[in-house]
TrEMBL record:
Lineage, broadest ranks: Bacteria, Bacillati, Actinomycetota, Actinomycetes, Micrococcales
PANTHER family: GEPHYRIN (PTHR10192:SF5), MOLYBDOPTERIN BIOSYNTHESIS PROTEIN (PTHR10192)
Name listed for the protein in its UniProt record: Molybdopterin molybdenumtransferase
Gene3D superfamilies in the cross-refs: MoaB/Mog-like domain, MoeA, C-terminal, domain IV, Molybdopterin biosynthesis moea protein, domain 2, Molybdopterin biosynthesis moea protein, domain 3
Enzyme class: transferase
Enzyme Commission no: 2.10.1.1
Any GO molecular function: molybdopterin molybdotransferase activity
Metal-binding among keywords: yes
Domain MoaB/Mog: 188-355
Source species of the chain: Promicromonospora thailandica
Organism domain of life: Bacteria
Functional pathway: Cofactor biosynthesis; molybdopterin biosynthesis
Length: 469
């Protein structure tokens, strides 16, 4: 029996209900790249923290220079380089040699760039200041004022934001030492199927190489998780049971090893006691076959299994799905067909990993929205804007199921009737090749999501696209 038929949205909700955001751990700012900020981060100090020169030149009081730009000679009273220490006050009627980034001397309100003075240019390494300088033009300020970029207390990153390289820089500049981020999730990936051999093994009759294992492990890493991979596992419930426990044990050993490396007292940190896996993803063995090992194991209801939920999801490909907990750890059982497995990863596993990482803020109404329409899947996954793109060719839908089509972006001819107004107007999508072809998926720029009520997609119709790159 295929179990209950349910919508993709309903299945997403059940997946998200199975996982919870991981614990918050401060991470040194320089190591926070790719993590998700767990609490709003505000600037500890203003940037720049003091008024500083924006040009190499002479700090002056602008009232000491004639408004009409007539050249004036001023004595050079000193020298300020960028570096520690406070600058001495500028005496009226004098200039101070100053370098970009150096603190403005109190009293000075402007910098005349060296190229607009009798000095012309500074010679690198020549430290002594000139006795006097002719300033040829009334200066613009050329001063970076305190807090002009960021003021102390400004919001730099909202909870739920992924840390980018530029954010690392902005946080460092404004005094963040440690960033509150959620722990990186650990995902166990296990492929099942008696026909599978690992990458590199010679193929015998009836055998194929396990591609789902490496593919889903790569997808989980790309989604921000660490991966423990086991398998391929033969179609034997006992072997699957051993693999599930084996993955948990291996992750625990790894976590203990890491904890020892950090400090003898650092506990293995996981919501479930003594388990170091946050999510199990299996592929294969969930449909109606006689050897469908995941279903067989779930049906046997061993004590390690709880909340088993076998479903037929109204999507194509990727219909047979199951959810459960194995020793309390959330388990997503995806179908074995590689394109179906990949589509299932994008629609179900990626949002689950996102929630573990805290990419969804607690109480965020996007969670609730998700149940309403497949279009809002964008906020859970990796589409930045949910703007639909026009189909550049016709293709058939899958009435009653959400059709997931690997598509490529193609330029649309100028003035094309298909092109909507706006900057994205010149891009459309076409199927990347046969729907079940992994090699076509590998060339796809995105996954088009065609709703269950669409029988046919015509050229020009707007299509929701989950971007893959
Ligand atoms: N009588 C029915 N048969 C099938 C149904 C159904 O409802 N009734 N559903 C079909 C659909 S849709 C799918 S999808 C598959 C999913 O079945 P399983 O999840 O049990 O997957 P398997 O049978 O294990 O494998 C399906 C297919 O994919 C290949 N595969 C599996 N794992 C891998 C891997 N790691 N790397 C590469 N290729 C893999 C496997 O060899 C099979 O060709 O069931 C349909 N049948
Ligand atoms: O649902 Mo299966 O994944 O169509 O190929």
């Amino acid at each position: 029996m295929a179990g209950e038929v349910r919508s993709v949205e309903e299945h997403v909700e059940r997946v998200l209900a199975l996982v919870a955001p991981l614990t918050v751990r401060p991470r040194p700012v320089a190591e926070a790249l790719g993590a998700v900020v767990a609490q709003d981060v505000r600037a500890e100090v203003s940037v720049p923290p003091f008024d500083s020169a924006a040009m190499d030149g002479y700090a002056v009081r602008s009232v000491d220079l004639p408004a009409d730009g007539t050249p004036v000679t001023l004595p050079v009273a000193g020298d300020v380089a960028a570096g520690p220490g406070a600058a001495r006050a500028l005496r009226p009627g004098t200039a101070v040699r100053i370098m970009t980034g150096a603190p403005m001397p109190p009293g000075a309100d402007a910098v005349v760039p060296v190229e607009h003075t009798s000095t012309g240019r500074f010679v690198a390494g020549a430290a002594r200041a000139e006795e006097s300088v002719v300033l040829a033009r009334r200066p613009r300020p050329h001063v970076r004022s305190t807090g002009e970029d960021v003021r102390e207390g400004d919001l730099l990153a909202r909870a739920g934001t992924e840390v980018t390289a530029a954010l690392v820089g902005a946080l460092a500049a404004s005094g963040t030492v440690d960033v509150p981020v959620r722990r990186r999730p650990v995902v166990a990936v296990i492929s099942t199927g008696a026909e599978l051999v690992p990458v590199g093994a010679a193929l015998g009759a009836g055998q194929i190489t396990d591609s789902n294992g490496p593919m889903l492990a790569a997808a989980a890493r790309a989604a921000g998780a660490d991966v423990v991979r086991l398998g391929p596992v033969p179609d034997d419930p006992e072997a699957l049971r051993a693999a599930l426990d084996g993955a948990l044990d291996r992750a625990l050993d790894r976590a203990r090893g890491r904890a020892r490396g950090r400090s003898a007292h650092t506990p293995v940190d996981n919501p479930v006691d003594n388990v170091a896996v946050d999510l199990i993803v299996t592929a294969g063995g969930v449909s109606a076959g006689a050897a469908d090992v995941v279903r067989e194991l779930l049906a046997a209801q061993p004590p390690a299994v709880s909340e088993a939920d076998v479903a037929s999801v109204a999507m194509s490909p990727g219909r047979p799905q199951a959810l459960a907990r194995w020793r309390g750890v959330p388990w997503l059982a995806l179908p074995g067909n590689p394109v179906g497995a990949y589509a299932s990863f994008e629609l179900f596993a990626r949002p689950a990993i996102g929630r573990l990482r805290g990419a969804i803020r607690p109480g965020d109404d996007r969670l609730a929205e998700l149940g309403r329409s497949a279009s809002t899947l964008s906020t859970q996954s990796n589409i930045l804007d949910g703007a639909p793109l026009p189909a550049a060719a016709a293709w058939s839908g899958a009435p009653g199921r959400l059709l997931v089509v690997p598509v490529r972006f193609v330029p649309l001819p100028d003035g094309s009737a298909a092109a909507p107004a706006g900057p994205r107007g010149s891009v459309g999508v076409v199927p990347a090749g046969s729907r079940h072809s992994l090699s076509a998926l590998a060339t796809a720029d995105g996954l088009a999501l065609v709703p269950p009520d669409v029988e046919k997609v015509r050229a020009g119709d707007p299509v929701r696209v989950l971007r893959l790159r």
